[in-house]
Amino acid sequence: MHRSVRRLLGSAATVAVAASLSLTVADGTSASVTSSAIPQFTMPKVYGTRFQAASHHDFTKGILRSRDDGILRGWVRSYNKGTAEYTPVRWVSGKQEEDGFFAGPEKGDVSGYRSPVSSKAVLYSTTGCKISGTRVTADERGLGTTRCSTQGLTAHLEAGYRAAMITVYRGQIVKIQEISTP
C-alpha cells in the first residue's frame, strides 16, 4: 500500500516539476527551460550617465575576446562572420528633459569587447524590427518589446551603433534589447 502511494506522489511530483519548467513567453508562445537557460542578471540603469566599469580588464591590450557573463549597456560597433565588437555607452542629457543621446567612449579609447553571437540569440526591438521604423515598441523603461527574426537581428548587428542592453552568457551574446532614444 505504501509503495503505491509513493509511486503516485512521485508521479505527481514529476508532473509538477515538468509544469514548472515550462513557461509561456509574453507573445503567447511556449518555451521549455533547459539546464542552459539564461540566468537573471542584474540590469544596469537604462539611461545611466556613466560607463559600466570593467575593473579586472586591461583594455590597453586591445579589444577583449569576450565580456564576463551579464548585461552591458552598449552598442555593436561592427559585426562580421558571427562575431560582434561592442562597447559600453552612457546617456548624455540634453538641455530639455526629453532631449539627449547615447555616447560611446571617446575616440582613441580601446575599451571594447568581441564576442560570438549565439545561434539562438534574440533581438527585442524598439522600432518594430525595422532599422528606421517609426512605430515605437518599447516598455515604460524604454526597452524594446518586439521580438525580431534572425534576419532582423542580423540587420541590427550590421547597422551598428544602436544603444541596447547586450546580454552575454557563457562568452556569447544571447540577447539584445534595444533602448529607445528620442
Structural class: alpha+beta
- The number of helical segments is 2
Question: Largest sheet, if any?
Answer: 5 strands, mixed, barrel
Number of domains: 2
Q: Rg to the nearest angstrom?
A: 20 Å
The pLDDT mean sits at 78
| Residue windows where pLDDT falls under 50 for at least 5 positions | 1-35
Could you say which overall geometry the principal axes of the C-alpha atoms support? globular
What is the CA-CA span between the terminal residues? 68 Å
Q: Based on DSSP secondary structure assignment, what is the total number of beta strands? A: 10
| β-strand amount | 25-35%
Strand order of the largest sheet: 3-4-7-10-9
Keywords: Signal
Signal peptide: 1-18
Characteristics:
signal, 16% helix, alpha+beta, 5-stranded mixed beta barrel, 182 residues, two-stranded antiparallel sheet
Could you please describe the fold and organization of this structure?
There is one protein chain. Helix content is 16%, strand content 32%. The protein has 2 helices and 10 strands; from the N terminus they run H-E-E-E-E-E-E-E-E-H-E-E. It is of the alpha+beta class. The protein folds into 2 domains: 2-32; 59-178, no CATH class. It starts with a helix and ends with a strand. The protein has a 5-stranded mixed β-barrel with strand order 3-4-7-10-9. The protein has helices at 2-21, 150-159; strands at residues 22-24, 30-32, 70-80, 83-88, 90-93, 100-103, 113-125, 146-147, 164-169, 172-178.
Précis, in short:
The chain is an alpha+beta fold and 182 residues long. The protein is built from two helices and ten strands, in the order αββββββββαββ.
